[in-house]
Amino acid sequence: MNAPGRILDLFAGPGGWSEGLRTLGLRDVGIEIDPAACATRAAAGHTTIHADVAAYPIAPLRGKVTGLIASPPCQTFSAAGLRAGNTDLPLCHQVLDDLTRGHDTRDNVRTACSDPRSLLVVEPLRYALDLRPDWIALEEVPAVLPLFEHTAWSLTGAGYSTWTGVLNAADFGLAQTRRRAFLIASRRGPALPPEPTHSDGGTDADLFGDGLPTWRTMGDVLGYPPGEVITRGNHTTGGSRFPTTGPSWALTGRARSWMLRVGNRPSSTRRRLDQPAPTLLFTNARKDVSWIDADSAPIRRLTVQEAAVLQGFPATYPWVGSRTKQFEQIGNAVPAPLAAAVLRPLVPAALEVAA
Questions:
Q1: Alpha carbon of residue 316 to chain centroid
Q2: Nearest partner of 61 among 147, 132, 135, judged by Cα
Q3: 238-292: pLDDT as tens digits
Q4: Numbers of helices and strands, H then E, in the chain
Q5: CA–CA dist 39, 167 (Å, integer)
Q6: Which of 1, 43, 248, 273 could pair covalently with 219 via S-S, beta carbons 3.0-4.6 A apart?
Q7: Where are the beta strands (DSSP E) in the chain?
């Protein structure tokens, strides 16, 4: 961290934000506590500090960070978890207020939390107020949006333009309808959400543009067996039948009838191959994300490579750790296409320097 103008990535995970930056010709330095995620980042060529974000010394970073990225752990707020964070929301708001006033009360308040991890959501504001980067990008599960709105209010008082809202990754080229809350902030210009590159069902060209292509499907990114005839459409209606032309690198058999099931209950979400995947969750039940046929008969489990591609990573991304840890890393990561879309408007000056 000796050079000025670095991009700091808190809770960096296996490299979703880093891969998004890489497509823009930029790099970050990640802080990550999980050894498996650190090893994955190292194998992928991403610089990482193995440390606890909440305990890492900020003072040596002052004046050296241009951009701040953070995806605090979401387990305490996620619908896939126990949602202890919902009980801790008032305490998180209290600490955000305290930090805004210049008081660090994390240690005292943490003892009152149902889950100490809940307070990790305040760390981006603590770093931001101390480091004053030019721009900030935060991501979390939608349940955290009220805390992001509170954080944005504090950043506005510190001279930032801010935007908060929920983005659907399918609108930005991911073959997955993954919805996540974002906070975007900038001291150099207006903070604006990214413009979608895709839409559900597509849009027609008009006087103002060429229109948008339809959402990408699992079949688009995973492939189909040559010669199979499938039906394409959006997630609510059917579509036209057409022959596939490219070979499949992952799917075998009569894949036109395959569906992806997330969960093992009768109400579990199911999506056909000609649709985007639902939000992929691997926290508690990797074995429950499986391919089934039209009669709900099991075919096989989703592979690590398939999960990675559906999350926007290359099929060859070098995951490290047990299979459970690999799936956990994938499910927690920010999809690279969505990360790139969010970051592109924030870093035009950096892109000009890189060019």
A1: 19
A2: 132
A3: 444 444 444 566 786 667 788 999 988 777 899 999 999 999 988 664 458 999 9
A4: 11, 13
A5: 29
A6: 273
A7: 6-10, 29-32, 47-50, 65-70, 135-140, 161-168, 179-186, 229-231, 241-243, 259-262, 269-272, 289-292, 298-301
Distance CA 315, CA 306 (A): 7
Residues 6+ apart with CB under 8 A from 104: 98, 126
Q: What is the pLDDT of residue 79?
A: 57
Among 159, 162, 156, 158, which Cα is nearest to 185's?
162
Q: Which residues contact 190 (CB under 8 A, 6 or more apart)?
A: 161
d(CA 270, CA 291) in angstroms, rounded, equals: 9
Cα–Cα dist 314/312, whole Å = 7
Predicted pLDDT of residue 205: 73
**How far, in Å, are 16, 27, 134, 344 from residue 332 at the CA level?**
9, 20, 26, 22
Domains annotated for the chain, with CATH where assigned, are 6-199+334-354 (3.40.50.150), 218-316 (no CATH)
CA pair distance 309, 215, nearest whole angstrom = 15
Strand order in the sheet with 161-168: 47-50, 29-32, 6-10, 65-70, 135-140, 179-186, 161-168
Query: Does residue 202 come out as left (phi exceeding 0), alpha (psi in the -120 to 50 range) or beta?
Result: left
Query: Under a CB-based contact definition with an 8 Å cutoff, are residues 53 and 11 in contact?
Result: yes
SS3 content of the chain, % helix, strand, coil (to 5): 35, 20, 45
The confidence score (pLDDT) of residue 96 equals 98
pLDDT value of position 250: 75
d(CA 188, CA 195): 19
Q: What is the pLDDT of residue 241?
A: 45
Taking 70 as the pLDDT cut, the residues of the chain under it are 1-5, 76, 78-85, 206-209, 224-249, 252-254, 283-287, 349-355
Encoded tokens for 242: 């057409």
